[in-house]
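Re: Re: token formats

Sure, here are both.
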Amino acid sequence: MEYEELRFRVRPVGVHRHVLTVSGVGGAAEVLAVDDGGSEACRRRWEQLVEAELGNAPLGDQDAASQLRDLGREVSRLLLGPRAAAYLGAAQEHVGRMQPARGLRLRFDLPPALRALPLETLCAPAAQAGQSTALH
């Protein structure tokens, strides 16, 4: 399968402030307020889910899939502002209509403070398509 590609580039511009740019036709740019500790918290949740799924830790009240989707939505909320999320949704729709069929590859260029984010969990809010963005 061939792929179209979106590149997400995040750069710090102040304390807990980052500029996000998205390449592609039209593109998008916005300023994000991201607490660097949120990245580490997401990574810890991801590692706990992996350990639970492997049977090395308790799972809790929710099943792993639900917790994984919740984590993916949190990563999406931290990393994608409204403009970038809308642009990603439009790109997914556009690629879905292409003939022959093509996939959409997402590439992230993150500063060191945000590299702990588990990008593999990325998914859209519950009311939107793209519930498992990383798997498409």
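Second one below.
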Amino acid sequence: MLAILLVSAALAAYEPPTNLEMAEEAIAEACLGLPDSLLSAGFQSVSVSMDGDHQGNWLVLQGAVGALEAGGVQVTSSDRGSSGAVALRIRPMELSMSLTDAGRSWIFGSRRIDRELRCELSAELTDSDGVVVMSL
């Protein structure tokens, strides 16, 4: 009886991730290679901007800046007045969630909805004249 109560308490304490938390994780995974690519090409400081008109741009920008800073790349303001400034332009190609395989484990049991979040990004590094230096 005690074991059943402990398992029930553990299951009740488990909180599945929210849609926002899943989106942040997918964006972080999509941005994993950005810092290494920039640093290996000799770019230690960039400004970041978003291309396209996607409603998730703010979330992608937040995730990309976080990934770059965590990877050792300095993110500067978007003011490109300084000479030699490079800009990383990011465009979300896909940022979507699919809800699949909904159901119940029992008639009056818990509901289950499998969620799959996809994030694909395109990124270009441009120099101060807007010329593409590198595609990531």
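Residues 88 and 125 are 5 Å apart (CA to CA). The chain is about 35% helix and 35% strand.
- S.
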